[in-house]
Prior knowledge:
This protein is an alpha/beta fold.
Amino acid sequence: MASALQNLSSYDTEKVPNGNGKSFGIAVAEWNKHITFELLKGCVETLTQHGVSENDIHIHFVPGTFELPFAGKKLAQQHHLAGVICLGCVIKGETDHDVYINTSVANALQNLNIAFDIPFIFGVLTPNNEEQALDRAGGKHGNKGVEGAVTALKMSSI
């Protein structure tokens, strides 16, 4: 369903497993940090609301979205994690850079899911413009970081 038709932060809290005793990694891109840091805020708040201790949340910051899979892999190697959430934002520009970055990151995270046998969550915004990104980073369409946390909690219980 398109984001325009729903608020990403609206979910049934009763259907989200408790994260007590679980550890999660979060890799965050610093590029477009006014957006990605809002995603991080929503992600951390959601994890802690569902029982994850702040001490069990491990965060790595990287320069851009392309570097998220490497940071995610390092988090998984350094900590015993129930899942890794990768947060970034690649805004469409004048070239096709967004297609190459987003496809590469999605494929790398899919491979990490299989290699590490834990969920690596694609929490990357792929908007056409900054307004669409802001709408999904705490604006009128909620916060994709919240969705990433909920997804990680659900997937870690499989």
